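Title: Prediction job returns without error message
Component: structure pipeline
Severity: low
Priority: P3
Assignee: unassigned

Description:
Job completed but the reporter wants confirmation the result is attached to the right record. Sequence as submitted:
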Amino acid sequence: MADKRAPLVKGITPKGLSVWPKLNKPDEYQGKKSYSVKLVLSSEDAAELINKIDTAISASEVDTRAKLEDAIKNGKTGDVKAKAKKALAALVTATPYADEVDDDGEPTGNVVFKFKANAEYKDKKTDQLKPITIPLFDSKGQPTKASIWGGSIIRVAYELVPYFVASSNTCGVSLRISGVKIIELVSGGGAGRSASALGFGEDEGGYESDSLQGDESSGDDDSSSDDTEDF
């Protein structure tokens, strides 16, 4: 019987500075398309998010160790057992955040978080790849197609996704993007799930879209999150 996957931990970040945002159009690397953005938060604003991430990483490590121990005990072949034993002995954890440093390598007092999301999903019925778009909202919670450049102030709705990479014996959690709210826009002009469904309320005095967009499908895959915590 397959393991029952636990619900993903979800949340929304504080306002932060976006760095190298790829949110309107995905990057492509080795045939795989993905969205990404780095978010810079002060150490004070980052504390709660770090605590949530570290708790999830600890859970991921416990789960990974349990699975490797089971493989050592119940693996179908000696090779499977040997690989699991080696992985368990060398297992390390990784974090999706790091202290920011300046050009001289000195800590700035800020923390940089790395968010990402797949830009395609495989339709289970047709086995075809279909595109995914990142839902973007203005400060009022209205859908927008604004082009987000580095320096924009944003909030990110996210999911903590556990992982184990056998090639590096590394486990942890990744920060998967569910949606983005633009508080202060740098640049200038999608849609998808509603702002309220992702938990975005309204921020006063921030960026407001000139035009509203109708309902557009952003794809339906395992990355969907319709119950992000409200704020």
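Comment from assignee: result matches the submitted record. The chain is about 20% helix and 35% strand.
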